[in-house]
């Protein structure tokens, strides 16, 4: 099933057609070449279900890529139904699960109150209307349903961003965005609360991958389907001189003694529940029985 997405408005940061095209191109070689980060983050994400003592009967893998999380979710959550959904038809075809769906996260074709668990690994950072997507996810969850998501954070690829900034300033007198804007921990925490999730938790992790060259990093980003898809990006390849200057800046600023360069991926993990009366509730304001002054008073000898 394919769900048609609404047309982007003028405030959209990402070119969703480009996001889909990048994933479609990456799909054929994604397994074994471009999926290393999704697999690593997926294991860390699904592993968090160890702390949840319940079974999830109806599960959605939102942004499933090539189905890398499917085996983990079937083993860990033992669902009666696992739906694997992605914006990219080619990625969904690679997932090849018994229940698959081509769907846009900004226009989620899922019935309200139908899911026990939504998992999303390295997908939501390409969404223009993230508040709207989170609201739709919350509505699709049953009361006391769980959202587990991982998305790239603001420190991701800061080395690449700085290298191109310096190179383009020197070579062309200005700079275009080469790395997507990513949210930070505080923004996401407030967003989960604002979109109606209970017991929200946000935490951060860093994964650093080293490369022989900036060219090798760019090749991997294309293989991952993570090439630049901002609407303000240049619609042509960087000039040869600019790219060589950026590669040199990268080595000079961040390279190690062996000439290898690091690429940082900051991963933000989101946990939120659809509200339910059984969940722990904050105490009603004014219901305290001890005055603050008494609580802060040191004990008398």
Offer a concise description of the structure:
By secondary structure, the chain is an alpha/beta fold. The protein contains 10 helices and 7 strands.
Can you characterise this structure?
By secondary structure, the protein is of the alpha/beta class. It is 36% helix and 20% strand. The chain has helices at 16-34, 36-46, 70-76, 89-95, 130-140, 158-171, 185-194, 214-223, 240-254, 292-296; strands at residues 58-62, 81-86, 100-102, 115-121, 141-152, 198-211, 261-273. Strands 3-2-1-4-5-7-6 form a seven-stranded mixed β-sheet, with helices on both faces. Helix 1 packs parallel to helix 4 (89-95), helix 1 (16-34) packs across helix 8 and helix 6 packs across helix 9 (240-254). The radius of gyration is 22 Å and the shape is globular.
């Amino acid at each position: 099933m394919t769900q048609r997405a609404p047309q982007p408005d003028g405030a959209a940061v990402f070119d969703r057609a480009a996001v889909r095209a990048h994933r479609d191109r990456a799909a054929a070689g994604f397994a074994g070449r471009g999926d290393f980060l999704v697999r690593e983050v997926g294991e860390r994400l699904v592993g968090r279900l160890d702390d949840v003592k319940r079974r999830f009967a109806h599960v959605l893998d939102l942004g499933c890529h090539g189905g890398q999380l499917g085996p983990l979710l079937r083993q860990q959550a033992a669902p009666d139904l696992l739906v694997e959904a992605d914006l990219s038809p080619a990625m969904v075809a690679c997932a090849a699960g018994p229940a698959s769906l081509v769907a846009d996260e900004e226009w989620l074709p899922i019935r309200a109150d139908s899911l026990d668990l939504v998992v999303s690994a390295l997908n939501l950072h390409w969404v223009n209307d993230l508040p709207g997507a989170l609201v739709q996810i919350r509505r699709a969850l049953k009361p006391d349903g769980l959202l587990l998501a991982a998305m790239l954070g603001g420190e991701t690829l800061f080395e690449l961003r700085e290298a191109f900034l310096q190179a383009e300033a020197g070579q062309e007198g200005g700079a275009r965005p080469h790395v997507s804007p990513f949210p930070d921990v505080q923004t996401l925490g407030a967003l989960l609360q604002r979109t109606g999730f209970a017991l929200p938790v946000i935490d951060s992790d860093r994964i650093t991958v080293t490369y022989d060259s900036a060219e090798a990093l760019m090749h991997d980003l294309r293989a991952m389907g993570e090439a630049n898809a901002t609407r303000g990006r240049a619609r042509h390849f960087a000039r040869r001189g600019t790219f060589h200057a950026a590669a040199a800046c990268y080595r000079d600023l961040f390279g190690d003694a062996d000439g290898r360069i690091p690429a940082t991926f900051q991963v933000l993990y989101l946990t939120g529940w659809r509200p339910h009366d059984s969940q722990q509730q904050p105490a009603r304001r004014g219901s305290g029985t001890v005055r603050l002054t008494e609580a802060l008073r040191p004990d008398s000898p």
